[in-house]
Amino acid sequence: MTWYIKRFDELTSLEMYRILQERTAIFVVEQNCPYQEVDGKDLASYHLYKEENGEIVAYSRLLPAGIAYTEASIGRVIVKREYRGKGLAQELFRKSVEFIQNELKEDKIKIQAQHYLEKFYNSYGFEPISDVYLEDDIPHIDMMRITTT
Fold first, then answer.
1. What is the distance of C-alpha 33 from the center of its chain?
2. Mean pLDDT across the chain, nearest whole number?
3. Distance between alpha carbon 11 and the CA centroid of its chain, in Å?
4. Are strands 133-135 and 138-146 parallel, antiparallel or unpaired?
5. PROSITE patterns annotated for this entry (predicted)?
6. In this structure, is residue 29 part of a structural domain?
7. DSSP state of 102
8. Which long-range contacts (CB under 8 A, 24 or more apart) does 26-30 make?
9. Which of 30, 49, 91, 99 lies at a 20 to 30 A Cα distance from 83?
């Protein structure tokens, strides 16, 4: 399995198709949540993913500051169902944070997290900055990670 990180214009049409296929399978179908998954932010984002045998098995969207929030952001974090429980989420999220810090040179990262994953994100230094709220009938919480140098 190989990790890739690409800007939108570096992705092939097949890579983007597979990314959108997995995101829709998880966020729309698996979570039974009809919403506009393709939101226009992909064009200005970096796409971090792991591929195995032509399948996207883990993915996150890395948004520079000013795209979703004033701060940089990580979103659309997924691991394909068959690959869960094997440490891919931890590896994916660690790589996501490292890219934003080291390549984008950002010291603040804001995320909109599903509430049940608060402890997972907390383990990477993210702290709640909002109360729990419903987004598409799913409990969410906004979280922030600030790196001091």
1. 17
2. 93
3. 17
4. antiparallel
5. GNAT
6. yes
7. H
8. 26/78, 26/80, 26/81, 27/76, 27/78, 30/81
9. 99
Length of the chain in terms of residues written = 149
CATH number of the structural domain spanning residue 87:
3.40.630.30
Structure tokens at 16: 């983007």
Question: What residues contact 142, with CB distance under 8 A and at least 6 apart?
Answer: 110, 111, 112, 113, 128, 129, 130
Q: Which of 19-33, 58-72, 84-98, 113-127 has the lowest mean pLDDT?
A: 19-33
**Per-residue model confidence as pLDDT tens digits over 33-67:** 777 778 899 999 999 999 999 899 999 999 999 99
Q: What is the span of the domain harbouring residue 29?
A: 2-106
Pairing of strands 72-79, 108-114: parallel
Measured in whole angstroms, the distance separating CA 5 from the mean position of its chain's CA atoms is 12
